[in-house]
Specification:
alpha/beta, Rossmann fold, 2 domains, nine-stranded mixed β-sheet, six-stranded parallel β-sheet, 20 helices, about 20% strand
Length: about 525
């Protein structure tokens, strides 16, 4: 009976609803928006009927087409009936859902904070309502389409598995998954907000949403979701340790059999140097030397840097936070510049880091260019024009920038953590001899270690044949979304079959199905 119902409701019997707060290019504060834009269409290409539910931010409501009511529901949050609408994406025509409640979502600033940078004081209500609406859709609020799986992303959707656990669907089981994109963002609020969340009183417990005397939306998802994933195999191991676990490592160790690391991927529709309109000329692995020289010249001209093709040009496209290790770069910058290096940096974040890099640029206008904020076209030009892309992160769940850098032939210089360890092969004597090196990695979170690795990289850059081989090797690495999407599809199949979707089972099934 359930199979027949599923067949009538969509073209695929495997239907997945993703709950995510961001979607590139309309609302984006980091890599989460990129993943939400790329993973669903990659799954759709594998015959997974996939939709996304989003908060009703103006960036979505103003851009999407064919917005129509699905249902209006009385909720414990809004104090009135809230509209869940269905819309089509203007770039693909795919369906998405919007939780449309202007008092919660029609605000200036980024999705989570006011223009002054402070978190909105009612974020627990804003994203609690979002989770509640996702659970309502999972229970069948849209009579024309009902998911078999609710796949929640980060703390913003963390309460949805709790709402489903508190009130399971009457007709059929809906499996739940939570993906951790960054464990540092746990959605923590005072215990006093718990009565506003409309959950059973028993859920405020260690075996529930309570977290050291507070409420954590992410912990709720980690506890109540049937399956957990994160965005790289190394990060899946790291977050089970006190060093990287942010107080949740004990819970994650108890759920280790249900935790799988699946790398994010590159969306070739957006990141491909062969067809990138932001570059002065297209290039591939064979024509990379001329293409990257042209990009380097264009980047230096745009940013006012003194062009010198022989000088190393380092690129940074990042949030400016201590997590990203950019305080290490700031401390190392005088020595990098003294050695002839150039820096092109694009990002925003921590006020002290913004000020520090801006001061460095004013003191060294020919060598350092800092653009505060975000500029999509400039991000592409930096990745293409840089000789090396710096990511000295203290922790990095997956990282997308190093994947873009590899594809564009800008060799990543990274700290060996999380997804950086999984995707960048350090240029050692062994890997150079084997021909597998694709970048440079170091272990100690210190300016000295960063400088030593930059010095090692610069020595290799002066050996053109070695550098060109590494660059071409990097550009041919396959980190596209198709392989990752196959792993997610196998995870969904295991979950619906009732078996723990361990990394070993998912990878074996995905490889057998052609993930490589």
């Amino acid at each position: 009976m359930r199979i027949a119902q599923r067949a009538r409701a969509g073209t695929s019997s495997l239907r997945v609803l993703h709950a995510c707060a961001e979607l590139y290019p309309w609302v984006k504060s980091g890599g989460l928006g990129d993943v939400a834009a790329a993973l669903p269409p990659a799954l759709a290409a594998l015959d997974v009927d996939t939709r996304v539910i989003l908060p009703g931010f103006p960036g979505f409501l103003d851009a999407f087409t064919e917005i129509t009511d699905v249902v209006r529901l009385a909720t414990p949050y809004a104090g009135e009936r809230v509209r869940i609408a269905r819309a089509r994406l203007p770039d693909s025509g795919r369906y998405v859902y919007l939780v449309d409640h202007p008092p919660f979502y029609d605000r200036p600033g980024n999705p989570y904070a006011a223009p002054d940078g402070s978190d909105w004081p009612d974020n627990h209500r804003r994203f609690g309502l979002f989770s509640w609406a996702a659970a309502a859709l999972a229970r069948g609020a849209d009579r024309d389409w009902r998911p078999a799986i609710l796949h929640c992303h980060d703390w913003h959707g963390g309460l949805a598995p709790a709402y489903l656990a508190a009130a399971p669907p009457a007709e059929s089981r809906v499996a739940t998954i939570l993906t951790i994109h960054n464990l540092a963002y746990r959605g923590i609020f005072p215990a006093a907000v718990f009565p506003e969340l409309a959950l059973p009183a028993s859920f405020y417990a260690v075996a529930g949403v309570e977290f050291f005397g507070q409420v954590s939306f992410l912990k709720a998802g980690l506890f109540f979701a049937e399956q957990l994933t994160t965005v790289s195999p190394t990060y899946a191991r790291e977050i089970q340790t006190p060093e990287f676990g942010w107080g949740l490592d004990g819970l994650l160790r108890t759920r280790a059999s249900r935790l799988t690391g699946i790398l994010n991927g590159v969306d070739p529709r957006i990141w491909d140097p062969r067809h990138d309109p932001n570059l002065p000329q297209p290039y591939d692995s064979e024509t990379a030397p001329t293409g990257k020289r042209a990009a380097k010249a264009a980047l230096c001209a745009r940013l006012g840097l003194a062009e010198a093709q022989e000088a190393p040009l380092y690129g940074v496209v990042s949030r400016l936070t201590p997590q990203k290790g950019l305080d290490l770069l700031l401390a190392a910058l005088p020595e990098l510049v003294a050695g002839g290096g150039r820096l092109a940096l694009l990002g925003s974040g921590d006020a002290d880091l913004e000020q520090g890099f801006a001061d460095a640029a004013r003191a060294n206008p020919n060598s350092i260019a800092v653009t505060l904020g975000y500029d999509d076209a400039l991000s592409h030009l930096i990745i293409a024009g840089a000789d090396m892309v710096l990511m000295p992160s203290r922790f990095e769940p997956c990282g997308l920038t190093q994947l873009y850098a590899l594809r564009y032939g800008a060799l990543p210089l990274v700290r060996r953590v999380g997804g950086l360890a999984d995707t960048v092969v350090d240029a050692s004597a062994v890997t150079l001899a084997e021909g597998t090196a694709t970048g440079f990695a170091f272990d100690e979170a210190s300016p000295a270690a960063l400088l030593a690795t930059a010095t090692r990289a610069e020595r290799l850059r002066r050996e053109p044949r070695v550098w060109l081989y590494m660059m071409r090797r990097a550009m041919t690495r396959d980190f596209l979304w198709e392989a990752s999407a196959r792993r997610y599809r196998e995870l969904y199949r295991h979950l619906l079959g009732g078996a723990p979707a361990t990394a070993e089972r998912v990878n074996a099934a995905a490889i057998a199905a052609g993930a490589g």
